[in-house]
Amino acid sequence: MKSSLSRRSLLQLAGLGSLATGVGALTGRPAAPEPAASPAMNHHARHAMGAVGRVSTETFDPMSFLRAWNFSDLPEQERGRFYRETPRPDGTLLREYELFAVDREIEIAPGVFFPAWTYNGQVPGPTLRATEGDRVRVNFVNQGSHPHTLHFHGWHSPDMDGSMPEHQVDPGERFVYEFDAEPFGLHLYHCHATPLKRHIHKGLYGAFIVDPRTPRPPADEMVMIMNGFDTNFDADNEVYAVNSVAHFHMADPIAVPLGQLVRIYLVNLTEFDLLNSFHLHGMFFRVNRTGTSLEGQELTDTLMLCQGERAILETTFRYPGLFMFHAHQSEFAELGWMGLFQAGEGSHAT
Amino acid sequence: MQPETRKRWLIGLLPLALLGGLVVLILRTGLADSVRGEAPPLEVLSFQKVELSPAGIAIEVLNDGPDPIRIAQVQVDEAYWAFTMKPAGELGRLGRARLEIPYPWVKAEAHAIRLVTSTGITFDREIPVAMTTPRPGWRFVGLFALIGLYVGVIPVALGLLWYPLVGRLGPRALGFLLALTIGLLLFLLVDAAHEGLEAVKRMPAAFQGLALFVFGISAAYLGIEAFGAWLAKRQAGAGAAWVTALLVAIGIGLHNLGEGLAIGAAIGLGEVALGRLLILGFTLHNTTEGLAIVAPIAKTPTSLSRLLLLGLVGGLPTIAGAWLGGFVYSPALSVLFLALGAGAIAQVIVQIARGMAADRPLAESLRSGPVMAGLFVGFALMYTTGMLIQ
Predict the structure, then answer these.
(1) Which residue segment(s) compose the domain that B80 sits in?
(2) How many independent structural domains does chain B possess?
(3) pLDDT of amino acid A15
(4) B56 contact residues in A (CB cutoff 8 A)
(5) If chain B, 390 residues long, is cut into consecutive pieces of 10 residues, what is the mean pLDDT of each piece?
(6) Which residues of B touch A42 (CB under 8 A)?
């Protein structure tokens, strides 16, 4: 009954149309479809996308992870247990780190717990930061249930690579990695025990920043590691994020200064998906791929990175207010990889 | 109490008392936990109902596993989405909850719902074609009644119009007709059993769908057998033929109840757009059911009011089924009604076969040419008209 009605109205439309505007109306559709959801509901839906609830930040706080390196988020006394600096005759530093692998359940979205393998109990692992030419010594203890390693990106000898079967550190064992920090840039470290995919996606990775001898200009700096979690073992991520917690910075925006340089150390450690990306709303940023030069290579608002790729992004917020950032893969964004900057409130410039 | 009686009670209750003690022991000592070891929790979640409304998507879930489940997040079409859950918190074994998700679904398109538990395990449900779920209201009460009328009541009534014809048939033709009826019913039996077993698969494991199905068949079979015997005794004057016809009508009525349930549920769940072909198919299919009802009373004069009664008993349940299916659908209900229909039909087949055989052995009565032809034609008729509705 309904279809005959709409056909009649279509005929009427066509008749009028041919008189008035020619053939245009012939392509007109029959009766407009009734909306499935009410306008009120659509309005509500604008605020409905996103994980529900808040995670506990007691054991891991994404906000403090953002701007912490060399355990700077720990109280001075405790920090000394994990990080020590010793000046060397040539003016460089010996930087010593205590890293351990341990199994730990982490909260990756409110109420969703992931049986992770971690460095020092956190995912991503602690950010290590040295200056070009420094000596880096990492005392690694495996307290986990499987063999693990530390595999650094950067110049080092093959026996420090943590990648071959003989490099695997068995549970309860230890190994000392030692090398010079070079070249300057943004690097990473991760476990290279096999099966590689599982050791990485379960959480064994972190950022390794090597500063140039002449420091980069002062800026509000932060580390963002794009990652994902396969919670149901289907080789596909159920949760995407920067720094592990889905939609964390949607509820807790990152405060950034207005008119001052902001520098983001962006690393892609997503497993299973070939690519991830970073998109910033309302502004552009300068991209410095792998951070190995002092000038950027391009100005853009969307950057694509392969697994293990990284870049230093620099920008200055012109306008106060909220600026969204997220993966431009909409699926990743809606599954957790999305956040907000709050420009102009509180300054973290160094 | 006599000492002897007391002794019997004691002996009878002793094992039960010991069993109670054992249960307490298992619960108190954590014996079961030590057997279980470090096995991770086993999470099984069953979707009971999905409803679409202008306010969004509502789903009802049931914890079908042995361990508690905590639903932490909801994804719709690969996006985390707001939701409210009642009751909130942990779902114990066989615990139920209703989730309301304010998702702007798109009419006639497909959507995927994924529930993420606290351990990251996911449970998926697809909405193949999104349509507003009918709510109990006069419009749908009327619509379902109309559908029931079309596919149940009218076709059965049309079939009854053959009554004057079957009365004029000779014994061979009548044998053919009764056999045809058995053929029709055999097809319905296969159909009901198939549908029932399919519905069993959709039930939560805890409800043991197959056991429920077998129980339903047996209950209907024995119930109608007993009802038939009671009726025959009470209405001795009316004759066995009338009783058989009434039982056939009841059997077909129960079957049509299941059929109506399936149609109502399909519309309610948005799984089917009841097309012209489907209505036509059910109409043709069910007209043959009217024939099955009048065949047993071919040689018995029957008043118009009684004929009308038979028609209503056979056809009306379709409407009731459509209402049930559309408004209070549950897989368990569906299994139960399909089983009742199957059991009733099985009994009716036996009833007609008994009547045909009279004093002869059953095998002998089935062996005649017209009877074999009737069985075949009946089944083939249903098979062919059935093609329209599959």
Answers:
(1) 45-127
(2) 2
(3) 32
(4) 37, 41, 45
(5) 85 92 86 74 88 92 92 96 94 94 92 96 91 80 86 85 85 84 85 86 86 93 89 73 86 84 72 56 74 83 87 91 82 84 85 78 81 89 76
(6) 104
* B248 burial via Cβ count (<10 Å: 0-12, 13-18, 19+): buried
Query: Within this chain, do residues B92 and B145 fall inside the same structural domain, yes or no?
Result: no
Residue B320 shares a structural domain with residue B233: yes
Best mutation site among A123, A233, A250, A334 for testing chain B: the one with the most B CBs within 10 Å? A334
Percent of chain A with pLDDT over 70: 85
B103 touches chain A (CB under 8 A): yes
* Contact state of B73 with A110 under an 8 Å Cβ cutoff: yes
Global pTM reads: 0.79
* Predicted-assembly ipTM surpassing the 0.85 threshold: no
**Buried b / exposed e across B43-58, counting CB within 10 Å, b at 16+?**
bbbbbbbbbbbbbbbb
pLDDT in tens, B37-48: 777 788 999 998
| pLDDT on residue B280 | 67
Residue B36 included in any domain: no
Contact across the interface for A41 and B54, Cβ inside 8 Å: yes
Beta strands A128-131; A205-211: pairing state: parallel
Domain identity same for B171 and B58: no
In the β-sheet with B71-76, what is the strand arrangement from edge to edge?
B71-76, B111-117, B122-127
List, for residues B330-372, the tens digit of each pLDDT value: 778 888 888 888 888 888 888 778 877 777 787 777 788 888 9
Which of A113, A229, A247 is nearest residue B80 as measured by Cβ atoms? A247
B82 vs A: CB within 8 A: yes
Give the pLDDT confidence score for residue A1 in this predicted structure.
30
Domains in chain A, ordered, with CATH?
A: 62-343 (2.60.40.420)
Q: How far is B331 from chain A (nearest CA, A)?
A: 27
Chain A and chain B share a number of CB contacts under 8 A equal to 97
Chain B residue numbers with beta carbons less than 8 Å from the beta carbon of A50 are: 80-82
Check whether residue B347 and residue B201 sit in a common domain.
yes
The answer to whether residue B205 is domain-embedded is: yes
